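Homework-ish question, so no full write-ups if that breaks the rules, but can someone show me the predicted structure for this set?
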Amino acid sequence: MKYEFKEIEQKWQKRWEEEGAFCAENGSDKEKFFGLIEFPYPSGQGLHVGHPRSYTAMDIIARKRRMQGYNVLYPIGWDAFGLPAENFAIKNNVHPAVITAKNIANFKRQLKMLGFSFDWSREVNTTDPEYYKWTQWIFLQLFKKGLAYKKEMPINWCTSCNVGLANEEVVNGVCERCGGEVIQKNQSQWMLKITEYAQRLIDDLDEVEFLEKIKTQQKNWIGRSEGAEVTFKLTTGDEMVVYTTRCDTLFGATYTVISPEHPLIAKLQDSLTNYDEIKAYQLEASKKSEFERTEMVKEKTGVKLEGVNAINPVTGEEIPVFVSDYVLVTYGTGAIMAVPAHDTRDWEFAKKFNLPIVEVVSGGEDVQKEAYTDVYKGTMVNSGFLTGKSVQEAIPAMIAYLEEKGLGTKKVNYKLRDWVFSRQRYWGEPIPIVYCEKCGYVPLPEDQLPLVLPDMEEFKPGENGESPLANATEWIQTTCPCCGGPAKRETDTMPQWAGSSWYFLRYTDAHNSDELSSKEALNYWIPVDWYNGGMEHTTLHLLYSRFWHKFLYDIGLVPTKEPYQKRTSHGMILGENGEKMSKSRGNVVNPDDVVNEVGADAFRTYEMFLGAFDQSTPWSQQGLRGCYRFIEKVWNLQSIMTEEDGYSADMEKLMHKTIQKVGEDFERMKFNTAIATMMSFINEVTKKGSITKGEYMTLITLLNPVAPHMTEELWEMYGDGGLLSLHAWPEFDESKTVDDQIEVVLQINGKIRDKIMISAELNPQEMQEAALASEKVKELIAGKEIVKCIAVPKKLINIVVKG
RNA sequence: GCGGGCGUGGCGGAAUUGGCAGACGCGCUAGACUUAGGAUCUAGUGAUUUUAUCGUGGGGGUUCAAGUCCCUUCGCCCGCACCA
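A: Not a homework solution, just the prediction itself:
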């Protein structure tokens, strides 16, 4: 019978849908499994071959869990707000909602043709008012708890998208999305206090099973550092607080530096004799984009503040104060004490401005030639009461001293900044806040949610970077919920990350119109048991959604501190030439073409077989053919199938081993070796020339999570009835996976000389005897002295000889 | 610069705790069949000077035994990047 994948695949997709085979059950007393993949942004390009890599992997896990008797939730939805649809809308004069609906329809078609076991009845769409009602609701809760606030601040501004960006969205000084230039711009912005959760976002990583590299990346991004704030008195009588992680080197602080934006400069204006020069430097620094500022790393610039000095609190010495843009206003206190002997940046600056370099930690080379920055070796010198101590001892000793004298305090800092939550764009959730002259920023009453986006015809941003919503004159005018007076709506919208920060919660009870999700549903389904997604979302989506989840936990809405119990990630699929797939490189593979050519089952198999799941691998059209051949071979085994139900004696061991290996490999996401194991199995069967029905049915059950359609078809023809997708996962018998006769290797001086079949039960002594009985060994060790003999049960015997 | 990862045939990649390097697939070679195909089947396929020797980026070490552990060095990829 010919393998007609088109008919088979359509038939089963229809059948599964009709029977609601993959619908998760709320209120079940079965054990649950919540598997999650990152819901896609429905772009105009359609599905990329990268999407199915993650979706197939989690589909395999979800399908296996279902077969193991779990109540499985494997949902899907659309992260559909965002810039591309809006930009397309502006260019082509179509409403973003129209394009989005079209794109979703296309994505849906493509995902359905791949046979994922998604529970389509729980589909969510972030642009649906019934959905974003709750996104807005969460924002209101954040606002009420003081975690959302408006602030005039310099933000990253993409000159091409005309929109503000979060720090996380600026990559190498350019816009993450479009690559456009990013400048600093002052703008009043909604901010979320993610920094308040910084410590918990680090600490709670201990409770979850994320890949170690994901945890590391999150920690690095949050960037915790322990240090001290130290107060320097100025000769003008003012004070200046600096942040340092190396307070042990305070005796070596020979100057101080403040950032160009530091408010102290204005305050000192009257005392400064070179104020004009400083002013000019500030202006120059403000003109530089973030990119230029980091590009300038090699060459330090700065100006000395003439007319004022700082006093080193431990030496009492007067030291100069500089302004330089190598000090960032956004980190620490925006001011530092410079210890050129033990900090590379300070050293460079000191060399350029001819400032004294005083060694206070010995152990390095000449500090006049290079800064010595090691904190684990070295001894304090020239450091008063610290002299003789190690750096590790000196740090707490200095903190104790500073605290006692009231000169400073211990202080923890984070690199993490508050989240810039405003976007001056149309295609996002409206921020449910009104501004009243009398009452200030007032939250919209919850019963007025959702605050629906006004229908507009023009989506271009306003003149000076205003949101397009600023042109929705009627929509803006409203009354203040507080005093009833005239008020204006907020025109900024939320960033794309808003809708994706909580979407997994909505899946648990997707159609609830009274609550975000019912308490029962949340308590049952949350946390997500296993979340797979891309590494590129580690510092954006993952961090943001953990933050929101913790907030929702704090207000008693969700049952767990962490949203995701386990997080894994997949590697990228590259073009056939080994480069990243892109239109401009002309190496894009379209899933539609692939499915058309070899079918969904072979496509899914190849996606899982092409390489190690967590590594980047190039696509190969030939490799795809290989997987098609495999699927077809499995199909053709029908022609050699016997009617026997169980396993034949000579295949039993291999069958049990195969069940064990495939199951274990799926769990470890070693899909490539799981498939290789099944390939080996059919190679054996083919060699033998026959397969029992029992063996065949077990094989297709193992293969079902990978290639669900074809196996379902075979099950219908030969199986026990019902859907294979809901049939029990095969069991294996541990005792039947072990061989009693095994081949062991005989080595002489570590070199392989022979192989013998022996009983697996043999102890090392018996193994040694068996080895010495080998003709080949006898010959090779004749006349030589046996120094020692190592026998590793079930593996090898190594005879060490001399002479 | 800091953090993470990687380096194995012609290619993608296998190899729990150190224990037969190259599973599986692709490609290639030869043969079979043929309605001549991007089909299928069979056999072979790390290298070489082939009773054997050498082989996991390079060099050194530990060990009876190293892709795996230690030191050193080179190269590539990803993330962060003046965070005091």
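Now go work out the reasoning yourself. Hint: The longest helix of chain A spans residues 591-609.
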